[in-house]
What we know:
By secondary structure, this protein is an all-beta fold. The protein is built from one helix and 15 strands.
Amino acid sequence: MKTARLIQIRSLLGVFSTITVSLSAAHAQPPAQPPTIPGPAVVLTDNLKLRTAPSLGAPILARMPCNSPIRVLGISADGLWYRAQYQDMTGFAYAKYVGAEGARCGQIANNALDNLTGVTATVRAVRLNVRSAPSLDSEIIGELKRGDAIRVIASTPSRLWLMIAYRGGIAYVYGPYTDFQLIYK
Length: 185
């Protein structure tokens, strides 16, 4: 252990304390870049579980070995899970352990929501509601107008709902009111 780092933490009472954290240079790896959505990716840990739903309690479809190639199809609203294809199965993999092609086993991926790339589409409707979930019953959190450019991160298989980057987070719009279907058939 060659590296020692001092961290000062200020408590609520205003008292300072010092904690020494030892880091081993052999284990310190830079974080892996998240994959492009949709696009190819690689598993960063051994036995990563592909699940039927974005939940630790969901049934397991497969255990994926480190360095397994997968295809990322989408991302959960909270950014914690990727919808992914592995071999002939489609399910959900924990995003922290999935990286862009070229990433190495043992790396931990950056927060997927920090580096979303997506594709750009344009609003075709006069007004388009921005919603908190992909449903007409979900809360309206904003509005876009004709000609506004949106960054599409993922879509439902039918492309009826698009997940978009919106005000520093994730939101949803109704796809047929954009040019997304015309561009990505």
